[in-house]
Design goal:
The complex is a heterotrimer.
Chain A (H helix, E strand, L loop, with lengths): L2 H21 L3 H26 L3 H31 L13
Helix pairs in contact in A: 1-2, 2-3
Chain B lengths: L11 H19 L5 H23 L6 E3 L4 E3 L1 H27 L5 H19 L3 H20 L5 H31 L6 H11 L3 H18 L7 H8 L2 H24 L5 H4 L5 H21 L4 H24 L5 H26 L15 H4 L1 H15 L5 H14 L5 H27 L12 H19 L1 H12 L2
Helix pairs in contact in B: 1-2, 1-4, 2-3, 2-4, 3-4, 3-10, 3-14, 3-19, 4-5, 4-10, 5-6, 5-10, 6-8, 6-9, 8-10, 9-10, 9-13, 10-13, 10-14, 12-13, 12-18, 13-14, 13-17, 13-18, 14-16, 14-17, 14-19, 14-20, 16-18, 16-19, 17-19
Chain C lengths: L7 H23 L3 H21 L3 H26 L11 H20 L19 H10 L2 H22 L4 H20 L15
Helix pairs in contact in C: 1-2, 2-3
The chains are: A mainly alpha, B mainly alpha, C mainly alpha.
């Protein structure tokens, strides 16, 4: 398949992830949206990598996966800490810090 | 080509920071009770060692040298900023221990995190490759999220951390996608020089512009430029105060270092700078928005911590003026940005240091009214705070005045930026109003409330050092400008 | 756009996986129940692993399944088990945010229009021998990318230690102090008037 198709798909994924972060107020789902964004980036990387016959993109994607794992660990830990205090992970209910 | 271990010597400051961080983590296991206080001093020793290493490397960095297959570079700009980061970490380690002890969450991991975040910042400004930039930014950011959320019993801390984290990770999504697009459209280039060499062919594809702007958006998030600033006030308010100072000073300075380097090499081609859609015009608009909205929001704040948070947003706007000017080819703009970053680092750390000093566990005293009468009760601290506020407002003879002076003077060299300088000057004048409100409260209003500050020897030492630094930068700005200037020629 | 050069099997595989990926991704962010969401996220990652394989990225496809669908998802599930709670109002429709999403959709239509510019229409030719295998990637990783490989260990250390620091449960003697602390803060919250917030939630209230 031509690379173009993969790029469009990657952007669709990225966009769905972005929408998830912007529209959903459940911090867990927002975190999943961020994972989707990163996967969109990875897919674009790999598609370009094949297009160019160059393996740097693969290595980059490899780093992104490691980074996503680290990010998820820290993010979920913060979520647990928030939940412990407030019994909610809804961002609209987290309003101790005034606007 | 193989990995040459000898090249690691060029990065001694970073290695010292990481090594000392690991050492603190190990020592933490054995330290009990009072011995915990020693952990902070380990961190301070690490910072001092890193400073020595930076000074030792200065002479050899006159010529830029790249290492590790183009991943990192050692040059004077990077070392100059390294100095600022390590100083910021050192001061944070002076402010933090009494604050943490008073509030009952002193643990060694805190100090280790500060050092790791600093190592990340160092990596960011040395990076000449998108992969090393990404890893540096993430190391710095993850440590900053953790530091924001580490006051586990405080709900504000967790709330600030989750907002900071989500927006930060969101920005990382943009960064990664933007890098993928740049990689694809430049024919597989990830290093700054490689990208710069492929710009003419890459600009044939609109995807390249998209990638470029995605990367810039992510960095704009990190420096909290309007309209990507919404996380900043909450994160800054929620974080333990010494961490707020560290974030506002160090993280922001590192992101600016990355912007200056990226725009100065990878995206420096005239094809990308000029025109209506070039980054110079886009960033000029962002600069005007950032200054104005940051100041307008700060005026309405009664909470000093939040006021300083908005003020730090507006300072990102002033700095962007310098970035734009350097993009338009003004040679003196880059040293001006660097000088501003250093004076801003010390001033912000000092101001947040006083905010950390004044409150205690039961009564944080964050509102302007709570500061009434400080001038008579604690004249020394009130004087220090006045110096910091005047410096933030850009009043001589402080470092902040010369920071703005050099920045605006550099921008004046380009006729296209006159309007931006006017906006900047007007904003500085407006900002003096709300900084003076605190000064007026401290000196001209009385309060019968007893003062029970957090205090602590190391805190006093930190405040003394920052106050001296801010005044010295205002009295002898020339020396630092010379240092900053010596690297701009390269 | 045409799919010149791709075999019929390639096309079928791509379209099936692409449609499934998009469907599951959309499903993920619209679910009210986080467990359903995380399950469809796993499905998204599996489909993506298939797409990676069709891009000759076999090593990455394996890593995707191991790290994402395996490790990260387990982490998610654990956390959901700790704090599973259905929401009353899962969506927050705010003008600026919706504008952001619409802007993204507009960019997407533009992208479909122009994405071909500068990229060949046909599928790329045969990839080099061993492209995407462990050996080939290892070669690049340990030669050109050794520094980031070392540096990411610091990142992982920060993540591990940070995760523990932020979320570890507190010691017993501190627990009482904490309960008082929380109560104090929540009372303070109840005394403030926050627009749009009916009442402050109290701990222990499910």
């Amino acid at each position: 398949m031509p690379t173009t198709y993969y790029i469009v798909l990657s952007f669709v994924l990225f966009l769905i992830g972005t929408a998830g972060v912007l529209v959903r107020r459940n911090a867990l789902i927002a975190l999943m949206g961020i994972e989707l964004q990163l996967n969109g980036g990875n897919l674009a990387m790999l598609a370009f990598s094949r297009e160019l016959g160059d393996l740097k993109g693969h290595v980059f994607a490899f780093f992104i996966i490691a980074l996503a794992a680290a990010e998820a660990a820290v993010g979920l830990a913060i979520l647990v800490a928030l939940f412990r205090g407030r019994q909610t992970v809804n961002l609209d209910e987290a309003t101790l810090l005034k606007r | 080509m193989s990995f040459d271990a000898a090249q690691l010597f060029a990065y001694t400051p970073m290695l010292i920071l990481i090594g000392m961080g690991c050492l603190i983590l190990l020592a933490e296991t054995f330290a009990q009770g009072a011995a915990r206080a020693g952990l902070a001093w380990l961190g301070i020793a690490g910072c001092a060692g890193a400073l020595v290493a930076i000074v030792a490397g200065w002479a050899g960095a006159a010529e830029a040298q790249t290492h590790f297959q183009g991943m990192l570079v050692v040059d004077r700009m990077a070392l100059f900023l390294d100095g600022a980061f390590v100083a910021a970490a050192l001061l944070t380690l002076l402010f933090a221990p009494p604050y943490l002890r008073e509030r009952g969450f002193e643990f060694g991991e805190f100090y280790a995190m500060v050092l790791f975040a600093t190592a990340g910042m160092v990596m960011v400004v040395h990076a000449t490759h998108l992969v090393s930039l990404l890893i540096g930014i993430e190391t710095m950011s993850l440590a900053a999220y953790v530091l924001t959320g580490c006051w586990r019993r405080n709900l504000r801390s967790a709330e600030g951390a989750i907002k900071y984290f989500l927006m930060g990770a969101f920005a990382t999504g943009f960064l990664v996608y933007g890098m993928a697009l740049v990689y694809g459209t430049t024919g597989g280039e990830l290093s700054y020089t490689g990208i710069a060499s492929k710009v003419p062919q890459a600009t044939k594809s609109p995807l390249f512009y998209m990638g470029e702007y995605f990367i810039l958006v992510a960095l704009a998030f990190k420096v909290a430029a309007v309209p990507f600033h919404m996380w900043a006030p909450d994160a800054y308010e929620g974080a333990p105060t010494p961490v707020t100072g560290f974030m506002a000073a160090g993280v922001k300075a590192a992101a600016f270092g990355a912007i200056v380097r990226l725009l100065g090499s990878a995206f420096a081609s005239p094809l990308l700078v000029f025109d209506f859609t070039g980054w110079a015009s886009v960033l000029a608009v962002l600069a005007a928005l950032t200054m104005t909205l940051g100041n307008l929001a700060a005026i309405r704040q009664d909470n000093v911590k939040r006021l300083l948070a908005y003020s730090s947003i507006s300072h990102a706007g002033y700095l962007l003026i310098g970035v734009v000017a350097s993009g338009l080819g003004v040679a003196s703009a880059k040293p001006a940005v660097l000088f501003y970053l250093v004076s801003y680092t010390f001033t912000t750390l000092g101001a947040f240091g006083v905010v950390a000093w004044i409150g205690n566990r039961a009564d944080e005293r964050l509102f302007v009214d709570d500061w009434a009468g400080l001038g008579t009760k604690r004249p020394a601290v009130a004087l220090a705070m006045t110096i910091f506020l005047l410096s933030l407002g850009g009043v001589p003879p402080t470092g902040g005045f010369f920071g703005k002076f050099y920045l605006f003077r550099a921008a004046m060299e380009s006729p296209q930026l006159y309007w931006l300088v006017v906006v900047g000057v007007l904003n500085s004048i407006v900002s003096i109003y709300y900084y003076l409100r605190i000064v007026v409260a401290m000196y001209f209003r009385e309060s019968s409330r007893a003062l029970a500050p957090t205090d602590g020897t190391s805190m006093r030492l930190g405040l003394l050092l920052t106050a001296i630094a801010v005044v010295l930068l205002g009295v002898f700005p020339g020396t630092l400008v010379e240092w900053a200037g010596s690297l701009a020629l390269k | 756009m045409n799919a010149g050069g791709a075999t019929a099997v390639d096309q079928v595989v791509f379209w099936v996986l692409a449609v499934l990926t998009t469907f599951f991704a959309g499903f993920t962010i619209t679910r009210r129940n986080p467990v359903t969401a995380v399950m469809s996220l796993v499905a998204t990652f599996f489909c993506l692993a298939g797409i990676y394989a069709s891009l000759s990225a076999h090593f990455l496809a394996v890593i995707q399944v191991l790290v994402y669908a395996g490790a990260i998802m387990v982490l998610f599930i654990f956390v959901i088990m700790i704090l599973n709670r259905e929401e009353v109002a899962p969506f927050s429709i705010r003008p600026l945010r919706v504008l952001g999403v619409l802007g993204g959709v507009y960019l997407l239509t533009k992208l479909v229009d122009v994405v071909g510019v500068g990229l060949p229409e046909a599928a790329p030719g045969v990839t080099p021998d061993g492209f995407g295998t462990v050996a080939a990637i290892g070669e690049v990783l340990f030669r050109d990318f050794l520094f980031p490989f070392e540096a990411i260990s610091v990142l992982l250390l920060v993540a591990i230690v940070g995760g523990v620091v932020v979320s570890r449960s507190h010691q017993k003697e501190v627990a009482a102090v904490e309960a008082a602390d929380y109560r104090h803060q929540i009372e303070e919250l109840a005394h403030h008037d926050y627009p749009g917030e009916p009442e402050a939630p109290t701990p222990g209230h499910h």
